[in-house]
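From the pipeline queue, job 12 of 40. The input is one protein chain; the requested action is below.

Action: predict structure.
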Amino acid sequence: MSKGLNKRQFRTEVFKGIFELDFYNEEYKSEQLELLYDENTHPEGVTVTEKDAEEVKGKCDDIIKNLDAIDKRIEDSLDKWTINRIGKVELAILRVAVYEYDYDKLEAPIVINEAVEIAKVYGGDKSGSFVNGVMAKIVK
């Protein structure tokens, strides 16, 4: 029996869900959220229990419900950029991080560190520093 996801794995699964949902129109997001876990094991070898899957879906749903406010926080922190210029990977990471900071009330250093670590794995060479810079402005 699986012991479930650790905190970083959980956060990574939420990031993947938010990233994936960004490719769908608003009317299809809730349907896609339900289809997020057709299989229990991901390519990285991470086993997602039914409980984990429900919790990830719930967190993704909460983020989507608060997306306008989250995106405004991100946009307000950008210098000479618009949110539409941010890559989809970095945007999904920032959305999860802002949610964790604003709604889950996690401490800034934890949120920033975790977001940067996910960016290093899933983003480009400069993703970590970009995410760090945006989040530093958001939490100040």
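Job complete. The chain has seven helices and no strands.
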